Amino acid sequence: MSTGTAPLVDQQGTRHEKGLSKGSVGLLGSVVIGVSTIAPAYTLSGALGPTAAAVGTHLPAILLVGFVPMLLVAMGYRQLNRAMPDSGTTFTWVSKAFGPWIGWMGSWGLLAATILVLSNLAGIAVDFFYLALAQLTGNEAIAELTRNVPVNVATCLAFVALAAWISYRGMEATKVVQYVLVVFQLLVLLWFAAAAFGHVAGGTAFDGLAVRAEWFNPFGVETFSAFAAGVSLSVFIYWGWDVVLTLNEESKDSTTGPGRSAIATILVIVALYLAVSLAVLSYAGVGAAELGLGNSDIQENVFAALAGPVMGPFAILMSLAVLSSSAASLQSTMISPARTMLAMGHYGALPAKYARITSRFQSPGYATIAAAVIASVFYAVMRAVSENVLWDTITTLGMMVCFYYGVTALACVWYFRREAFRTGKGFLTKFLAPLLGGILLLVFFVQTSYDSMDPEYGSGSSIGGVGLVFVLGVGMLLLGVAVMLVQYRRNPSFFRERFETTELPVVD
């Protein structure tokens, strides 16, 4: 087992392998896992309402604006992966570029984001599990079980345990589950979009708006704060594509395959999001009445409100799609924190036990269990405190994503600073694209952090007169600093040295 600052490739060209299953994931499987982690059905159900509330009919424009930095950052990730294919991704790359302290905090941003989203995924899965049971049995009282805190938490812990068990069994088990669940949710989302447009064409839609060119104009958003809030939420709905990079040591082509998978995943998602968001906007509008996206009563779960009117007796399929989406993502999202902690344990940034690999399944067993336990405890505590706390974690998640994506993108710029100007393609992919993407996301991080200090931001909850979203976000980062200092005392050698890696050949 490797500890300290072991290089990815030593001076003799020997790779420091972690014991993961090599060649177990191809391009299609990687894209499926990427789409699964993003969880389009679950994500759209929870994010369309708040985003529309922030930017109105400019919802499609904000989705496209949120897509741009994701694409720019993905180009930087692709280049870093080609030079250093390592499951630690943000941790490894930022540590190499900026040193172990910043690398540790960058990886903490990734870990915090995944723990936050695991909690929300579990919560949504519970909601739609009991909603689907109510629809199948015709007993509406069953849907109310999700409001019973002990029942809710117990069900959530069962879902997390099942997801962890599948992840523990390695990539082969993961792929089988993901193919089925991802295909099902994509088919239902496309069905929903087609049905919504059908209502608009037939004059039976709730609002019945015609698609307009101005919806795609991001400059029509009234204030920069509203723009930043909308982008922060749109960043959240794209988040998760980087999971395909953490699979690089298990991919069939570790240097180039994961980068292609990341780009493909983002393109598939943006096309799907535009289709569904236009359908919802055209059908429901942004008013505050009944089915309008401005109605705060339906914003936390748009599809639960719209599936019946849009799909009629087939609304049960949407409940099952969101359930399968959140369940699939709950399982695939564990891939990223588990492999990040695996790398951190491997290089000495966390205790060596996090680097343990199961001999039978060649998976990061200890790190997977640790991620599941942390997410379960966080959910149980937050759910017991307030439902609003769980909702505010979505906005906090957007802040964490902007932070660690932005830092990783700038790590690409710094790492390739000497060779990026040798060719036009190198300048675009190693310098300009990640520089713009990183700066944009960090600007959104700062703006959202500032705005979230307002008690009215997010759900309107506050602590000591300061917005709960800000408290959660800053609290997460400060907790990261504290854990980092504890680890420094345990293993100061990691923080006193720099990664020394022999670059793999990179061809533009």
From TrEMBL:
A Pfam family that the UniProt record links to this protein: AA_permease_2
Membrane topology: Multi-pass membrane protein
Bilayer-spanning residue ranges: 25-45, 57-77, 108-131, 151-168, 180-201, 221-241, 262-283, 303-323, 363-382, 394-416, 428-446, 466-488
Annotated InterPro entries: AA/rel_permease1 (IPR002293), APC_superfamily (IPR050367)
Keyword Cell membrane: yes
Predominant place of localization: membrane
Keyword terms of this UniProt record: Cell membrane, Membrane, Transmembrane, Transmembrane helix
Protein name (record): APC family permease
Native organism: Kocuria aegyptia
